[in-house]
Design a protein that fits this description.
Layout lengths: L14 H11 L2 H6 L4 E2 L10 E6 L16 H7 L2 H21 L6 E6 L19 H16 L9 E7 L12 E2 L3 H17 L5 E4 L3 E2 L2 E2 L5 H4 L10 E2 L5 H7 L7 H11 L12 H12 L5 H17 L19 H13 L2 E5 L13 E4 L21 H9 L4 E4 L3 E7 L2 E4 L32 E3 L5 E5 L5 E4 L5 E4 L5 E5 L11 E5 L7 E5 L4 E2 L1 E3 L2 E3 L16 E6 L1 H10 L3 E7 L19 H13 L3 E6 L7 H6 L2 E5 L6 H9 L34 H4 L17 E11 L2 E10 L5 E11 L10 E10 L4 E9 L5 E3 L4 E3 L3 E8 L5 E9 L9 H4 L1 E2 L5 E3 L1 E5 L6 E5 L5 E8 L4 E9 L2 E7 L2 E7 L9 E9 L2 E10 L2 E9 L3
Parallel strand pairs: 2-3, 3-4, 4-6, 5-7, 6-9, 11-12, 11-26, 26-27, 27-28
Antiparallel strand pairs: 1-2, 7-8, 10-28, 13-14, 13-16, 13-25, 14-15, 16-17, 18-19, 20-21, 21-22, 23-24, 29-30, 30-33, 31-32, 31-36, 34-35, 36-37, 38-48, 39-42, 40-41, 41-48, 42-47, 43-46, 43-48, 44-45, 44-47
């Protein structure tokens, strides 16, 4: 008799039945062990080890060599869903191929990031796609579909969206709370996640470090209320690294780790990423929570069931049936071509007064200058390069090496102290591999090199290239190309190929020394120690060693050549100058560090000005994931381009665009403001009230959302729009009236003509990137759900499409609208706010001043508290019907609630309660009738939850 396989091994059964069978075979300890990121093998059942979390934002990251595509914001700038789908497919195939080589590579990929680029100073802006929720979700849907694959049952990889929710600041990111009102929540932040989840190619989400409305994202009720309501698929929620511990240690939201762990699990977190590969701490907390009755086995099983379903979908239990099991597609010709195509499509032409494109056949000389002219920069979530192309490489290849001149523009300096000159000893670099080339589950643990001799102080100076990246942050590089870096032993060596690492060890800052004319101490930023000349060489404070400011060596700097002088010479010797400026992705803006300004660093400002003074035919190419306030450059220079760091083919792509081999057609995925003064505070998440992003900003940006030029000319014509049930069907014709073939990005916007509440000035409703030959035309059709015209009605607590006129607009950017037509949507108006019948939730305001939303309780609910003495909450069109006689206020804290209706103010004192979650119901008389506005001011530490009203005669 043939032995029947265990049901969980039977591929004929649906995954759900197989999961149930396997679950009941696992012991409680085995199930608990699966809740950690690194789940151990269960040998008695033949289960292998499993880990969640393989970074794959724009290529396979951290695990050695892989194809490196443009940064995520660069993919967003392509506005090309199909291209991004192919990139996702290539990345997914490389994950599979690397998994076959190295079982440390996981198939649960933590990508993409769908946090919206609300604020241009956010340090992790490089990881997102756009400030627009619709564009973000469209690009995310494309990328996750590529990662997932198209098999109906088995997944190529299992993508996890990052980071739930309203996460746009690195400063105090694990303790700050984003105050997000219901409208911003539903119309903006949730939307980016919602559409990607509904598309069916997402395996889960990762909560963010921050709190939303006073409650940590890792215990958010929104995980169950919204995320898991969008799909029938069992989504996995993976914690961010260390976040479970933060609930107690930094946020102090819970008193014990057992309480925190139980609350996370009950809220919907399934996999704990904490304490690295040591699962004992987290599993111990789960067991402790069980012993205290904070959890039961059902809570454990619910999470494990979701994790097992993901593992079944990844083919772990059916290797013979897994269509992706044999993938070996790593660094293929197709992937190289795709990396180049993506980098080309990510280039945005900001300005062109006829200088571009350049003609390689004309035999003219091109100068390529600037701090990034010979750089191919990687970010924290990049893989290790197999191929590398800098702008200098690309231009030499395309225009001929004999017709390209180069000057970096770094200041060349010699540094001396009382004991002599800083000197880099000669060393045999050997065949030392690039940092991270071998792969690392946690690259933050990679150590700096200690095999090279440290710097010394001698009579022989070494010339160093000094770059000031802004805010006084400098790097120093020796002639052979290695950066000065500090390893664990504290010594300074010329040892790093590039700045990098979780804590960057290659950045320094000069600090003036009182009483020493021209003398400075050199602060090593990574350790906080001062550079000193010691007996064994130049070093900074070792771990645990205290070196005061007075102990640091005083240095003087001698400039042997100013960078702008070298740039000016190169510019004068060329027909055209390309100045490549931008950022290093590990400095002054990255995970853990927000930017401080939109300004281009002063050293780079000097370089483009020097180039232009020497040669008016100067192009500025900005290579950075961030916007800049380039007002003077935009007014002065004849041509500007922008691209995010473009991955392995960045230089070739830029050269092909400059040469006209490819017409640029990327579009800005976020607004470029003209100055820091135009920006809201980093923690101001109320995009409606503070008029943020292109949706609400009424000023004149330097460059608007969706902006981007081409080498061609396009006309838009024959716009039609009609309603077909729950859909709007819109079409228009785009014609290439120019002389060159080019892509164009047709953009569709909608706006409410006469809304009753603040609505977007216009909102992207569709986009299409198309390629047209000269003289060719294409009819472009869009389908827009009518519900996309709606907004969250705080008065009634629901999504609503307000009846009235809506303008359908088509154009080449949010500010370049070529066509428009108006549609009228019929329906019944929502009516005034029924406060007598429904009461009034404090967080459901229409407008606010100097307040923030906080948690009503640790598990659920919102309240509002004041952040300044002069504060106000405004609730419009409140319907008091035939009249009220009183009001009931639910509040905690101590102070008063001032309620104003029809010019009359009622003060409701709030006696001190026993803590912020001890809400009391307080009553006062209130006479109001008909429809009118209600205003509330809060005094003291009051947290207001809601109001209820008593009708006359009740």
């Amino acid at each position: 008799m043939t032995e029947q396989p265990q049901p969980f091994r039977d591929p004929q059964l649906p995954f759900a039945k197989r999961v149930d069978d396997l679950l009941q075979r696992l012991t409680l300890d085995e199930r608990i062990a699966m809740l950690h990121q690194f789940a151990p093998a269960v040998d008695r059942l033949g289960l292998g080890a499993f880990r969640t979390g393989q970074e794959a934002l724009h290529g396979v990251a951290w695990m050695g060599q892989a194809t490196v595509f443009p940064q995520a914001v660069g993919l967003g700038a392509t506005w090309n869903d199909e291209l991004v789908r192919r990139v996702g497919e290539a990345v997914g195939n490389e994950v599979r191929a690397k998994r076959a080589q190295d079982d440390r590579v996981g198939l649960n990929v933590w990508a993409p990031t769908v946090n919206l680029l609300r604020h241009p100073l956010w340090g992790r802006g490089e990881e997102g796609y756009s400030e627009d929720a619709g564009l973000t979700s469209a690009i995310a849907v494309a990328y996750t579909r590529g990662l997932r694959g198209d098999h109906p049952h088995y997944w190529r990889t299992a993508p996890v969206l990052k980071h739930w929710l309203a996460h746009n600041n690195e400063t105090d990111r694990d303790t700050s709370s984003s105050s997000v009102g219901p409208r911003v929540l539903h119309e903006y932040d949730l939307k980016a996640f919602r559409d990607a989840v509904r598309a069916g190619a997402v395996a889960g989400v990762m909560p963010a470090y921050n709190l939303v409305n006073g409650r940590p994202n890792h215990v958010s009720p929104l995980l169950s209320r919204h995320l898991r309501a969008w799909t029938d698929q069992p989504l996995v929620v993976c914690s961010d690294a260390g976040a479970p511990t933060n609930l107690v240690d930094s946020e102090h939201y819970f008193d014990t780790h057992e309480e925190a762990t139980a609350a996370s699990l009950r809220a919907g977190v399934d996999s704990f990423t904490d304490h690295g590969q040591d699962s004992a701490v987290m599993t111990g907390r789960v067991k402790g929570a069980l012993e205290r009755g904070l959890l039961d086995e059902h809570d454990i099983d619910t999470a494990v069931r979701r994790l097992l379903h993901m593992r079944f979908a990844l083919g772990e239990f059916d290797p013979a049936l897994d269509p992706y099991a044999g993938s070996a597609a790593l660094d293929t010709e197709e992937h190289r071509a795709l990396a180049l195509e993506a980098a080309e499509q990510a280039v945005v032409l900001l300005k062109n007064e006829g200088l571009l494109p350049l003609d390689p056949a004309a035999g003219k000389t091109v100068a390529v200058v600037g701090l990034l002219a010979d750089a191919c920069k990687l970010d924290w979530y990049s893989g290790t390069l197999i191929h590398r192309s800098t702008p200098l490489d690309g231009l030499r290849e395309r225009f001929g090496a004999d017709r390209v001149v180069h000057a970096e523009g770094a200041d060349l300096v010699r540094i001396k102290c009382a004991d002599g000159w800083l000197h880099v000893p000669p060393a045999d670099a050997g065949d030392e591999a690039v940092r991270g080339a071998e792969g690392a589950l946690d690259p933050a643990l990679l150590a700096g090199r200690t095999d090279l001799p440290p710097l010394t102080c001698t009579d022989t100076p070494s010339e160093l290239a000094l770059v000031d990246w802004g805010n006084g942050v400098i790097t120093l590089r020796e002639p052979a190309g290695r950066y000065l870096s500090v390893a664990e032993d504290g010594y300074v060596r010329a040892s790093a190929d590039e700045p990098g690492g979780w804590v960057v060890q290659e950045t320094f800052r000069w600090e003036a020394v009182e009483g020493h004319a021209g003398g400075h101490r050199l602060l090593h930023i990574g350790t906080g120690g001062y550079v000193s000349v010691a007996a064994g060489g130049v070093k900074v404070a070792a771990p645990g060693e205290e070196i005061s400011g007075s102990a640091g060596t005083v240095f003087e700097t001698e400039v042997t050549e100013r960078g702008e002088d070298a740039v000016a010479r190169a510019a004068a010797a060329a027909d055209t100058v390309i100045v490549v400026a931008g950022n290093d992705p590990h400095i002054n803006g990255r995970e853990t560090e927000d930017r401080t300004t939109l300004a281009l660093p002063a050293q780079q400002e000097r370089l483009w000005r020097a180039a232009h003074a020497a040669n008016p035919r100067t192009v500025l190419a900005v290579t950075s994931p961030y916007p800049y306030a380039l007002n003077d450059a935009a007014a002065t220079l004849p041509a500007l381009l922008w691209t995010a760091h473009g991955g392995q083919a960045a230089g070739t792509a830029l050269a092909r665009v400059l040469a006209g081999d490819v017409s640029p057609a990327g579009r800005l995925p976020q607004t470029w403001y003209s100055s820091d003064a135009e920006l809201p505070g980093m923690l101001d998440y109320d995009i409606i009230g503070s008029r943020q992003t292109y949706l609400y900003y009424k000023g004149a940006p330097l460059y608007p959302f969706g902006h981007g030029l081409t080498y061609g000319d396009f006309t838009y014509s024959a716009l039609t729009a009609e309603r077909d049930g729950d859909l709007l069907r819109v079409s228009l014709t785009v014609t290439n009236t120019g002389a060159v073939a080019s892509d164009e990005v047709a953009q569709l916007y909608v706006r409410a003509v006469a809304p009753s509440v603040a609505r977007p000035l216009r909102q992207l409703a569709g986009h299409r990137r198309l390629h047209l030959a000269p003289g060719a035309a294409e009819r472009v059709a869009f389908t827009v759900p009518v519900e996309e015209l709606g907004h969250w009605d705080v008065a009634h607590g629901r999504w609503t499409v307000e009846p009235g006129a809506y303008e359908i607009q088509a154009g080449a950017s949010s500010a370049d609208i070529r066509l428009g037509t108006v549609l009228t949507v019929d329906g019944e108006a929502a009516g005034p706010r029924p406060v007598l019948a429904r009461g009034l939730e404090a967080a459901d305001y229409d407008e606010q001043l100097a307040t923030e939303i906080v948690d009503r309780a640790k598990t659920d609910g919102d309240a509002v508290t004041a952040t300044a003495e002069a504060n106000e909450l405004l609730y419009r069109c409140c319907d008091f019907a035939a009249g009220t006689s009183g009001v009931e206020v639910s509040a905690s804290g101590e102070g008063a609630v001032l309620i104003t209706v029809d010019g009359t103010t009622v003060t409701v004192p709030v006696p001190a309660t026993e803590g912020p979650y001890d809400y009391r119901t307080l009553r006062a008389g209130l006479n109001a009738s008909g429809v009118g506005d209600l205003r509330i001011a809060l005094r003291g530490t009051v947290r207001l939850a809601r109001l209820a009203f008593t009708g006359r005669g009740e």
